[in-house]
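Subject: Pimeloyl-ACP methyl ester carboxylesterase

B.,
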Amino acid sequence: MSNSEQRLIGDSIVEISGQGPAIVFVHGFTTTAEFWREQVAPFSRDRRVIRVNLPGHGVSPRPEERGYAIDDFVVDLERVFTELAIEPCVLVGLSMGGTIAQRFVLKNPPRVNALVLVGATPHGLGPDVKVENVLTAIDRFGVAIASQHVIERSFAACAPASIVDWAKNEVVQTPAHVARVAIRSLNASDSRSELSSIRIPTLVVVGEEDAITPPAESRALADGIPDSWLTIIPNAAHFPMIEQPHIFNAKFSEFLNSI
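Prediction pasted inline below.
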């Protein structure tokens, strides 16, 4: 892809495509920047698409001496914003990335002018992925198999096996020392009392079949954020941006045009 580069910023490998106003994409627990691959071509034509591989995820470094809690990832994201001189931008977060995005906006309101929360919640995860079950699976099967078990529950019934297999190969890159801390921190995070302080246009997106962060959780986000829209995407579960990319991209484009 032309006009693309990869940079190491702190402990994050950052993928940058295109030029113009920035859209910053943050992935979820054990996933990677590649989960936003279907958004690169359409949105980098006239914008700078910045996809962050969080520390300990994907191709990014995973030193054992640092932290991997939500607040640590917020600091990592702040460094990306500073080093890339990102002006107020559109911030997009998937699942755990949605939790990070909420914390980032609440801590740095001038740095974001619009927010997109995909498969996200105001508090923890849905009942299908309880933290104690994830930790028990890591102990019993190892982190790679435990992460793949979550992926198997993350797609709609109609998702092609090739996409599910691709996703299962992506999540095995996150080691146990990262996953344990991240899932505990994600489970403990709670922004319910602060949602009304998010005063920017916000698009909340969820797959109709999402069992990881059920649509009711997205509805709670939309109800709590004053200037927000809820979009439920059919024939999709936890990853609507790769399960139904044309629908997702159309809804995202409408949102961008509205702001």
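The mean pLDDT is 95.

T.
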